[in-house]
Amino acid sequence: MSYTTTLPAIFDAARLLRRHMDRTPLHHYPGLSEVLGAEVYVKHENYTAIGSFKIRGGLNSMARLTEEQRKSGVIIASSGNFGQAVAYGGRTFGVKSIIALPLNPNPTKAEAIRNFGGELLLIGKDYDEARAHIQKLAAEKGYHHFNDAEDPDFIAGLGTCMLEILEDLPEAEVVIVPVGGAGFASGICIAGKGIKPEVEIIGVSSEAAQSPYLSWREGRLIDSPMTSFAEGIAVRVSFQRSQEVIRELLDDFILVSEEEIRRAIVLMLEKTHNLAEGAGAASLAAAMKLKDRIKGRKTVLILSGGNISLEHLKEVLESGPGSRA
């Protein structure tokens, strides 16, 4: 199958990103390795300027807008991190950005979007409602609109994360990636399988937001109820372009519970001294569930973001014994 995003496009994105952001570290953690019985590494996408992997796509896509698109400005819908990425990319390249967030958004992410120069629009009960609204607004006002799960330049930027992983750890055997809209997983798969076909790539979503998993399993787009607190993977609908990629290239896909994600947030904090948002901790939650499968293997957990709100962090820390539960 041919994909809209290609491996050469990912290498081209990497060359652009080197001028605008630092590569993120890949650290080995003996404490996590002991808990999981594997040689565990964490890819720290929480170390970017926006605390999320999506900065890669935001910079690459905003850099490649046409002159007409730059003049019209960009409007997108987000649960938070995508919005930060577009606002940051817009500030970097001088493009107006309007970011639609659901009502009652993560305040940490909303404030960051404003600080990066994005214009906030609060609409809809969740990401999917906000996205439907701004599609109409884009058509009415002439704004350029795209989403992070379908835009080829955005996905190419995201794939640069995998290039860095394989540069730093060529012998990586397993990579676990959180999946929401699946743009990130698409980029990871295209880069990973294009460079090292034998690397095992495993996706993870929440049991409380199963659309990506069900769509992958059934081979068709399936809407599903969404109640997850993990904003980065909290979607009710999936996207054809990214689903086609992960259906072809993702080795496996598992679901974890909300409680398993909460425990993983605490375990990540305990063993690595890093804050992970819900989606960012999902890869560790999956690894805990797959201990027998990854035993003794060089395993990379992608900590996709660290933008957890103080309210959610407080709830997680007060909810129980965490990693010892």
User: Quick one: CATH class of the largest domain?
Assistant: Alpha Beta
Reported for the largest beta sheet, the result is:
6 strands, mixed
* Helix-strand makeup class: alpha/beta
Strand fraction equals: 5-15%
Please supply descriptive tags for the structure shown above.
single chain, four-stranded parallel sheet, globular, Rossmann fold, 325 residues, alpha/beta, six-stranded mixed sheet, 2 domains
Would you kindly provide a written description of the structure presented here, covering whatever features stand out?
The protein is α/β, with parallel strands linked by helices and 325 residues long. It has 2 domains: 221 residues, Rossmann fold; 91 residues, Rossmann fold. Helices cover 49% and strands 14% of the residues. α3 crosses α8. It is globular. The chain starts with 6 loop residues before the first helix and ends in a 7-residue tail after the last helix. The relative contact order is 0.16.
What's the arrangement of secondary structure elements?
Elements: H1 7-17, E1 26-28, H2 30-36, E2 39-44, H3 55-63, H4 67-72, E3 74-77, H5 81-93, E4 97-101, H6 107-115, E5 119-122, H7 127-141, E6 144-145, H8 152-168, E7 174-178, H9 183-195, E8 200-206, H10 211-218, H11 240-249, E9 252-256, H12 258-272, H13 278-289, H14 291-294, E10 298-303, H15 310-318
Parallel strand pairs: 2-10, 3-4, 3-6, 4-5, 7-8, 7-10, 8-9
Antiparallel strand pairs: 1-2
Short description:
The protein is of the alpha/beta class and 325 residues long. 49% of the residues lie in helices and 14% in strands. The chain has two domains: 7-53 and 151-324, Rossmann fold (3-Layer(aba) Sandwich); 55-145, Rossmann fold (3-Layer(aba) Sandwich), CATH 3.40.50.
